[in-house]
Design brief:
Order of helices and strands: HHHH
Largest sheet: none
Number of helices: 4
Shape: elongated
Strand content: under 5%
Structural class: mainly alpha
Helix content: over 70%
Distance between the termini: 34 Å
Radius of gyration: 16 Å
Length: 57
Amino acid sequence: MFLIDILIIFALVYLCRDKFNFGKNSAAQEKLDMMLVNGEISEEDYITKKRILNEMR
């Protein structure tokens, strides 16, 4: 029974990893980073949009 509980918890954490951002950037964050690197947005816009992304989480 204890093993089943651990497996259920592990499965829930695995399924929710993107929502809680466990060591992994979201797709939106990665795209924002690439836009900055490619010069598509200014550093000020990057900071503003990154703040908005963090507030949405």
